[in-house]
Design goal:
Helices cover 31% and strands 22% of the residues. It is an alpha/beta fold. It starts with a strand and ends in a 23-residue tail after the last helix.
């Protein structure tokens, strides 16, 4: 009887489920909400998080797992994390050079986006190359800003991780690779070859190629749980599977495996996504093409002001969520064409 643990480090919480594959049942599940999912900033557009928050939550939740299951039955651990966040490390994953991490809500890199776009021949050229035009929240322009504003810290940086590969690295005790699905959300990976694109690396920051982990398929076993964690939690030498991005993982987790299937997710940001057999990149630059954990591709379009808008409407009218549902039921679908597209933060689709 084998147990498999899967973690999800989203913007606002860390969750875990442990499944018994033979009994087809849940052996354990839990979730912890972050007290401060992102840090306050006086700089316009800057949204960072403390990577120690993710690290502390992972270790605490792993301890809960170890205390709640038959440890001897645990076979492997995998996970997913919010996309686009970046962590800057030294020789070890615990050696964090930059103490804060820009996350997907950051919109402070308009200058860097324009420079990368000019170097690579325009928005459509970049989209055809990497699957997306350059977006401020993507990891490439965030790295360029880090290099420009903190050159000494950049020089000391030996590995630049996504949140997913950072957490996988903490589990194995050494630098883990980045999986194709999450790596494709950086404006740095060639969407067709699944390799780091030299032109994109050169346009972003000097020596970037030596600072990025290797790219691997999503099902790759990247290592074994570190000896330190085995001893501390009395866990076996379980396999650690490459962690991926939350959006690609959501697609697989909801059972979307064939082109033509679509899902809508209403979360911190609202998304619509589905599988693709080939990387058909949108000409208007609004959507993205990511690699899929299944080995093909996924198309996704994101509306950043998802829950922000709903929560603002709810609090403005003093409603509970049940009250919001009642208000929605009181009008027909489409609200007789009286619609609004609100934004309280710089928007992605449309670009505002």
């Amino acid at each position: 009887m084998s147990l498999y643990a899967g973690f999800d480090c989203s913007t606002q919480s860390l969750s875990v489920v442990v499944i018994d594959t033979e009994a087809r049942s849940l052996a354990f599940r839990d979730s912890a909400v972050f007290d401060r999912p992102f840090l306050p900033s006086t700089e316009p557009g800057v949204v960072h998080a403390d990577p120690r928050m993710w690290s502390d939550a992972l270790h605490a939740m792993l301890g809960k797992v170890a205390a709640s299951i038959d440890r001897s039955r645990l076979v492997a651990i995998g996970g997913a994390a919010q996309q686009h966040g970046s962590v800057y490390c030294g020789s070890r994953p615990t050696d964090v050079i930059r103490k804060t991490s820009p996350i997907w809500m950051d919109s402070s890199t308009a200058r860097e986006c324009a420079e990368i776009e000019e170097t690579l021949g325009g928005a459509n050229a970049i989209a055809q190359l990497t699957g997306s035009r350059v977006f401020p929240r993507f990891t490439g322009p965030q790295i360029r800003k880090f290099w420009r504003h903190e050159p000494d810290a950049y020089a000391r940086t030996q590995r630049i991780h996504l949140v997913s590969s950072y957490l996988a690295s903490l589990l194995i005790g050494e630098h883990a690779p980045i999986d194709h699905a999450d790596g494709s959300g950086m404006n740095l990976m060639n969407i067709r070859t699944g390799e780091w694109e030299p032109r994109a690396l050169d346009a972003t920051a000097p020596g970037l190629g030596t600072r990025l982990p290797a790219l691997v398929p999503s099902a790759t076993i990247v290592g074994i749980l570190s000896v330190e964690l085995q001893r501390a939690l009395r866990l076996p030498a379980v396999h650690i599977v490459a962690w991926s991005g939350d959006n690609p993982s959501s697609m697989v987790g909801t059972g979307l495996i064939r082109e033509g299937q679509l899902a809508v997710s209403l979360g911190t940001s609202d998304t619509i996504f589905g599988p693709m057999r080939s990387p058909s990149v949108s000409g208007d630059g609004t959507g993205h093409v990511f690699a899929s954990p299944l080995g093909e591709f996924m198309g996704i379009t994101v509306f950043r002001n998802g829950s922000l808008a709903r929560e603002h409407v709810r609090t403005s009218f003093g409603l509970s969520w049940e009250g919001v549902s009642d208000a929605l039921r009181s009008t027909p679908p489409g609200n007789d064409d009286a619609l609004m597209l609100p934004w309280f933060e710089p928007e992605i689709t449309p670009t505002v």
